User: Fold this.
Amino acid sequence: MNRPDTQALGGTVNARIGKVYMSLSKAHRKAADYVLSNVFRSATMSIDELANAVGISVATANRFARALGFEGYPQFRAELVYGFEAMLAPIDNLRSEIQRPATSTEIISSSLNEDMANLEATRRGLAPDLCNHAVRQILNAERIYIVGYGASAFLAGLMAHSLDPFCNTVQSTLGSGGPSNVARQLFKYTERDLVIGISFPRYAEDVVTILQQLREKGVPILALTDAPSSPLASLANVTLYAQTRRNFSPNSEGAALCLIEAICSAVAHQAKAPVHAASEMTKFMLPWLYQEPNATSRKSQAAAASKIIDMDRPA
Assistant:
């Protein structure tokens, strides 16, 4: 996986430090050494946090910024942040939110309101042609692999779980053994298969890399992401969007999961003999499903399930 070059992203600040380093005071050199060794971490810090981490006063931290040619610490941090904006936005949002007085009930209510707004925006943004195309892709694929990393790995696992009764072969990256192992499996995929890529800000480089490789092979790709500006959008044959804005975290996984469950519901509706498929799976799973102590025996339940299956069996 390609990692961001933090030295390159903080390059302007690094260059300024290099030009004046020998003329800096002992305290300022201490600050410079910390920034050079911790570019990303420094970009996330307020002036108080940097001063505390380095072991200098706030006034000295501000003078350090001026010694580098900036008007003050805000301008120094703005330059340090350049290139990290998307990664740092959730941290800045969190810093702002925790400074706002509020009760736990107000925060919970506000969070629920955020997701209701996300879901309404997602619903309004649905394109009928793309929705229909996505469902056909899923139902027509011989094999499906769902790719997601970070929190999206769990979303991929849940989507695979929901699609499994209605599709021949569904796998996901959850517990897959890492990107290189996934790549080995996806190397065998063809135009008859489907790969579903899931990633939201802050986008996972591994997902983008895998989809780039698959696009070159001509494997159909369905992307689930947040906006047309997402790196997944340009790689997919079909893209469906979920608004996932959240003040206290980078994304709302709940809003993304709602889109996934909605897609799986559409697949179940369009699948051949969905009731029969669900009944067969339920019959097979009966030994692992909890039953009340006084409930009907497993043998009787299995017989009842078989009767239901026979009724639902396609002609």
Notes: Residues 1-10 have pLDDT under 50 and may be disordered.
